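2024-03-11 09:14:02 DEBUG pipeline.ingest accepted 1 chain
2024-03-11 09:14:02 DEBUG pipeline.ingest length=198
2024-03-11 09:14:03 DEBUG pipeline.predict start
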Amino acid sequence: KRFRYILIFKNFGKQAGATISHPHSQLIATPVTPKRLKEKLTGAMQYFAYKDRSIFEDMLKQELREGQRLVYENAGFVAFCPFAARFPFEITILPRRQTAYYSDILPDELLLLADALKVSLQKLAKALNQPQYNFIIHTAPARYAHHGFWTTIDQDFRWHIEILPRLTLIAGFEVGTGFYINPTPPEESAKYLREISV
């Protein structure tokens, strides 16, 4: 019960932090909710309080409507280059169904997620010659430690995956400010990836 958050991630390549040469993913449990996730949760909660709907649903609708940043979609998931991408060719995979917890994924959604993740990674590999990357599964934190704190989390937060190709370095500016310099507009990244056949 002391754990607040469980993080699943993959580091592929030395520049992405991989310390073991063979492909592997990692699972780490922490006694606190990480700062980055807390910011996402707070933003989602505030947006829901203001708009009475999920920011993730609005993002999904906008990406599907505009189509410029779409990379791939299937019946369960949408892969797109986010509007405020931190890295060139960054991809977010968002489930179509509202659920805060990755562990609530349905059996038929597992195959759809595997398809979306595989296609996204294959497109990156083909387009960028096997880039080093991180992927992170962002899921809601455990609630039992602070029962009732996030009363709208099931409606306002949606679990998702971020794929972060390591094509540029994180340097003093990024570390010192939390701002990222991305020289490639997400619309251009997505167009290039969409045109890659796998």
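2024-03-11 09:14:41 DEBUG pipeline.report The radius of gyration is 17 Å.
2024-03-11 09:14:41 DEBUG pipeline.predict end
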